[in-house]
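Work Package 3 (structural annotation) set out to generate three-dimensional models for the target panel prioritized at the project kickoff. During this period the team completed the workflow that converts sequence records into discrete structure tokens, so that structures can be stored uniformly alongside our sequence database. As a representative example, we reproduce one entry of 213 residues exactly as it appears in the project archive.
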Amino acid sequence: MSAIRLLVLGAVRQHGRAHGYQVRNDLEYWGAHEWSNAKPGSIYHALKQMAKQDLLLAHEIAPSTAGGPPRVEYEITEQGTEEYLTLLRAYLTAYDQRPDVLTAALGFMVDLPREEALALLEERVRKIEEWRASVTEHYTPADGPEQLGHIGEIMHYWVHSADTGAEWTRGLIDRVRRGAYTFACEGEPFVGVLAEGEENPFAEGRPHVGDAR
């Protein structure tokens, strides 16, 4: 699984229509360039590829007054929305992927109804517990991981990660169940995107050839 498709589809969807630099700017605003593979090159590549796959609709708009090439604005299609929601649901329950997969899903979880988000998070806990049980059935050093040599620290780390992951998810479930955040069909949700021309305090500041498009 890769977080980039969900991140790019979600960013375009929040704007309605957005050009590549807006998408890049938003993802940098969220810090995605630090915790995921959302680098400028991969963002622009994802936009072009998903336009070819009919997940995004590309609109060429007027060239800049400086005489540059026409800028392309992207709009999510019905097929793209279906893909976005499919990825979002899968990433909320995927316990065995890189952290950026869950992080991306958390950024968009309010696009789902509250009860569906709760059900997906509960499924995540269930999967973590099932995985842990399958491991500890065989991995049970009574006197600690040292009994298996330093290699024992590998499985000890993963079991500990499963425990903390399940504990954190249960805490999120509790907060959501008690009414935290505004989910789909509940009103105006929090939208963390920058307005056109708004300064991004977290931008990398390095230009990329795709910025003009």
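The helical segments are 3-15, 20-29, 32-35, 40-52, 78-93, 99-108, 114-136, 152-177.
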